[in-house]
Structures are given as C-alpha cells and as structure tokens.
Amino acid sequence: MSALTVEKVWKEYGDQIVLEDVSITVEPRAFVALVGASGSGKTTFLRLLLGQETPTRGKILLDGVPLPPEPGPDRGVVYQRYSVFPHLTVLGNVLLGMEMSGSRHAARLFGKRRAAAVAEAREMLAQVGLDHVEQKYPAQLSGGMQQRLALAQALVMKPRVLLLDEPFGALDPGIRAEIHALMRRLWHEHPMTVVMVTHDMAEAFTLATRVVAFERRRDRPEEKLRYGASITRDIPIWPPRRAGLPSLIRPGRDGPALAIPQSE
Ligand SMILES: Nc1ncnc2c1ncn2[C@@H]1O[C@H](COP(=O)(O)OP(=O)(O)OP(=O)(O)O)[C@@H](O)[C@H]1O
C-alpha cells in the first residue's frame, strides 16, 4: 500500500557526493515534507524517487519492489512551475496522461473510452475547482489555478506516490493558504503517499505527517564536495495526522475538509 523504503542510498555526480547513506521508511499514506538548506540534495532525492535518476549505491523499494529505473504512472509529480502543457486546454492537460497510457501510439482515445476519460477528467477538475475553465489555456489562468491544474493532471492518473517539488513556492500567501486546504483535502481523499520538498517550514508543519531535514553532517569548506547530505532530523507531527480521518485531538484542524476552496 504505497510504502517507500530507501536503503543506504548514495548519489554522486562525478567527484561530488550529493547524498550520503540516506535511509528512510515511509509508511503508506504518509505526507512527508523534505526541508533543508539550498543545495542539500532535496530535489535530487525526489528525482531518485521519481526514477529520473538512479542511486549510485543503495536501493529504493515501492511496496517492497525495486523502483523501475524510469518514471511511471504510479508516481505523479508537480513542480513549482511548468508542470502543465501550455498548448493544451485545461481539459486537454488532464486528459493527456489517460490518452497516452490508453493508446500508446496514437495518444488519442475514441468512442466510449474517450467519453469515459473525459468524464473522469471533468470529475477531477471539479475536485480542484476548475470545472468552469476547462476550455481555457494555462496562460489564461492565475498561478494558483495553474498549480491546481498540475495537481489534477497528476492525480487523474491515480499515482501511488505523489512527489511535489516546491509546488506552492511561487504563490502569494493568500492563494497559498487556499491551495493548502485543497492539498490537504486531496491527500485525505486519494489513496496516495505524498513526498513534498519545501523551503517553507510553516507549510511543512501545516500539511505533513512528518518533517524530514536533509543536511551535511560534516561541512569542511575545503572538502565540501566530498560530503553528501543525509537525514539529520525526522520529526513526526503531533497530534498525529491520519489520512482520511479527523484529528483525534483537534478535529477542526486536520480532518478531511468538506468545502471546495473557491478558485480565484
Ligand atoms: N544532474 C546533475 N549533475 C551534476 N550535479 C547535480 C545534478 N543535479 C544536482 N546536482 C548537484 O547536486 C546538489 C544538490 O542539488 P539539489 O537541487 O538536489 O538541491 P536542493 O536541496 O533541492 O536545492 P534547492 O533547495 O536550492 O532547490 C547541487 O550542488 C547540484 O549542483
């Protein structure tokens, strides 16, 4: 059920050691926030989980099975920018993944299969509050709406793991609070494990079940490249958050939200 196991993973680029002996077990349905100084290897770690990079040493397992050495539909990803295709409409963006996986050569679906995919895409757009703009293009949307679209595009493929690389980092504070509420609801409602890189500690503690810090344990400036970062802090959030369930102690804080945040 979407458990990630990272065992003694190292990542080196030439002479530079970026990650050093990283081990972590992520339980199914967790929401892990990765924090750490710039250059500490957070994005590199996310790319390893995505399958865009392979570890120099060590292994990564998803539900006990080694990760395939390439990205696949079981892992969705949203970046800070450029996650969506500018030349496709909102609906086209959400349909694309289904069309690609349903028809590898033509990348198009026809007849009943297309109608079912369109219905599914529309349902997903409604979940993120974008059903009223399905014929618009990304450039016609605000930054917050583009990130909602990126979430819809990733989630419609039903990933077991959703990887987020500073997805809300470029948004204004008001919009960010709104999209946090949406993100929390999506995590409650979709059976996925989430790993999110963020520079924003408040965001990490607002959304995550666990906050994990990457840091170089040794940092002699003259030998900087010889030391990679590893996990130095692993903080469980208290009171615990559990996917799909209200918080036992503060039900108003963390439970599955009922309202769909208004799109701007
Ligand atoms: N493909 C690559 N080839 C060579 N070096 C790389 C490559 N990808 C990352 N690095 C190096 O790995 C180090 C860690 O980069 P990474 O982007 O993972 O850090 P980060 O913690 O995500 O930083 P930031 O918070 O600034 O985004 C950097 O020194 C970077 O130059």
TrEMBL record:
InterPro entries: AAA+_ATPase, ABC_SmlMolc_Importer, ABC_transporter-like_ATP-bd, ABC_transporter-like_CS, P-loop_NTPase. PANTHER family: BICARBONATE TRANSPORT ATP-BINDING PROTEIN CMPC, SPERMIDINE/PUTRESCINE IMPORT ATP-BINDING PROTEIN POTA. SUPFAM superfamilies: P-loop containing nucleoside triphosphate hydrolases. It holds the Pfam family ABC_tran. Belongs to the ABC transporter superfamily. It comes from Neorhizobium alkalisoli. GO terms for molecular function: ATP binding; ATP hydrolysis activity. This is NitT/TauT family transport system ATP-binding protein. Keywords: ATP-binding, Nucleotide-binding, Transport. It comes from the Bacteria. Residues 4-241 form the ABC transporter domain.
